[in-house]
Amino acid sequence: MQVTPELLSRFALLKPLPRETLQQLAPHAALVRHGRRAVVLRAGAREEQVCFLFEGRLQGVGFTIDGREVGLYFVEPGDFCGELALFDDNPQPEFVIATTAASVVFVARNPLREVMLQNSSVSNIVGRKLAERVRQMTVQRTLLGLSNIPQRVCGQLYLLINEARRKDDSGEIVNPPTHKEIAIMLNLSRETVTRVFQALQSRRIIRRDGPGRLIIADLASLRHFAEGEEEL
């Protein structure tokens, strides 16, 4: 499907660009719709495009030596992934899959790389994203090293709470991952994650507000469990 400069300007990475530059990029972009669990970027492939998420949610995943799926990060609408292709010609390191039906804008790597090199604002945004990704994966690796399973799950939930949505002693997670998606992130079974959720709900630490919001009613207790100060 044809992509317009107006659509490209909706992404934070491309918004600073003048219209003339967006017009030059638009012919090198395509809007593609993916079903749930579809592979958007494939590990081991030399991807020739960068992925911008318009609608839905994506997840970067890897696999352990024994073949177990491990979640690495989520991609939300307006964000991008596959940015390593802008810096080298090596294969894509992880799979990116659609966790819901998703609409993705693919922009060809070489034209986008030229734009990045000519526009410091774009380079800065990509650099910040890479730094954020490294920090996020470092924390994720720390969580995977915890032997206490409830602490691991509580730590993941605490990380998922957006800073802007934290209030005094409560918070919320908008469009929370499913138990299966959290299990993939923590190298656990879905049933194990469900048991921890049930324990948190029975203590009134968390509660559902429909499918799109998870309310953290007792943020302090969740933090204590996440930091190992108390045991669930």
Describe this structure in words.
The protein has eight helices and eleven strands. The protein starts with a helix and ends in a 6-residue tail after the last helix. The chain is an alpha+beta fold and 232 residues long. It is elongated. The strands form three sheets. A four-stranded antiparallel sheet has the order 1-8-3-6. Strands 2-7-4-5 form a four-stranded antiparallel sheet. Helices cover 38% and strands 23% of the residues. The chain folds into two domains: 5-140, Sandwich (Jelly Rolls); 149-226, Jelly Rolls, CATH 2.60.120.10. It has helices spanning 5-8, 19-25, 109-118, 120-144, 149-160, 179-186, 190-202, 219-226; strands spanning 29-34, 39-41, 49-55, 58-63, 69-75, 80-81, 95-98, 102-108, 171-174, 206-208, 213-216. β10 and β11 (213-216) form a beta hairpin.
Short description:
By secondary structure, this protein is of the alpha+beta class. It is built from 8 helices and 11 strands.
Q: What order do the helices and strands come in, and which of them pair?
A:
Elements lengths: L4 H4 L10 H7 L3 E6 L4 E3 L7 E7 L2 E6 L5 E7 L4 E2 L13 E4 L3 E7 H10 L1 H25 L4 H12 L10 E4 L4 H8 L3 H13 L3 E3 L4 E4 L2 H8 L6
Helix pairs in contact: 3-4, 5-8, 6-7
